[in-house]
Known about the structure:
single chain, mainly alpha, flat, DUF3077 domain-containing protein
Amino acid sequence: MLKIVPDPPHLYPPTLEDTLIQASEYARCALAVSHQAIQLQPRSPASTLILASTHELESLRVLLESALIQVQMPAEPGARH
């Protein structure tokens, strides 16, 4: 059954981890769109720009995943400087 009324917004600010997860999802969606655009119009004059965008989005996704891993790692007791 579909929800008619959406969930209320969170009253607390999102954590850094939540923000990185959401940014990763946006990057993944944008990457899927760029892949689809290239498949639909492989010989388009804009295909070079779409491929460049795809490459940049893939780099962004990797950076976001790396940041998320760093946030999720437990802090080691002797790692502070």
